[in-house]
Amino acid sequence: MVLADNGEGPRGHAGEAVSGTVSAEWTLPGTGLSVRNRTVLAAMTNKQSDEDGTLSDDEINWLLMRAEGGFGIVTTAASHVHPSGKSWEGEMGVWGDHHIPRLKELADGIRERGAASLVQIFHGGLRAPRSLTGGQPVSASTNLEKGVDEESRGLSDSEIREMAVSFGEAAERCERAGFDGVEVHGAHGYLICQFLGTRTNRREDRWGGGLEGRSLFLREVLKEIRSRTSDGFLVCVRISPEHDVGVTMSDSLELAGMMVDWGIDLLHISCWDAFMGAQGEPDDLRTITRRFRESLGDDFPMISTGSIWDGADAQFVLDEGADMVGVARVAIAHPNWASEAETEGYSPERPPFTPEHLLEQGLSPTFVDYMRRWQGFVTDGRS
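-> structure tokens emitted (383 positions)
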């Protein structure tokens, strides 16, 4: 569904005048964290961490290059909070104190370059294969997903509570290392999203049923994080407004309101395409960003991400009600995107990119090889 112009012109929060441009400084109302502009480097899989989850030189350099390039917030790749949560080779980890020294090196480097920093924390759930973890995958319920080799088992009540503690301990390590906050990954079909989805969560105990039960794991995760970190430590949650695990737009809007009451500092909606409406509600022509803004009211901080490529795209998303815009793919090839997005006539080159160009932009050969799997992104990759 392509959105039609609703005739109302550029809008900001819930119909208010546009509050800022891409380059405008901003202070988050909850924590008082100030960011130099409205751009966010969104978390991206890059497969550059060491086997035990420790940050490598390649991964640190990749992220510091984007901090140097002007992003307001730099977010790490998804980082598993428990050894059982590893979903792919080269995945960053935050499950042990041995990770802290290199985490500190990264946090210090991002701060020195003028950006704020978040670690995205997650658990792969049913998408964490035995080949990487040594154990059967776990989830909200027994599930077997397409592309997954082994059926997951449902976590027990005590295991769920222990998993929430793992998220809290991971956040504590991130604060000790000097990060400004964490982004709890509740999107894209991973463990928290599996609990939120009606298809992957068929439990009949307190962790399932209606939205209150299906969101209880996320609520406990947030409680554990808050109990182990300082008041000024930023807690962001990223969600998929819709997902085929059984997450619907209506549930996501309700969940967002619940999370405001729970005291999160920042919501990140992962739209895939920020110019589209909800796929499950084709008669509603509003963008997903606008619907969340209208539901949350004017003041609650929100990032929106999805298919943003140039400065005009970013401004559109701000005008729809986002406070910050997240980008991923464009930042892979253009580390200075945040500094140049508002330059008149700036039109960043689009894929495919040569391997040589990507190497020059700070990707390691491993990262370039991973990007070859993305259709049309690398000249010698999948077409």
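The CA atoms of residues 352 and 377 lie 4 Å apart.
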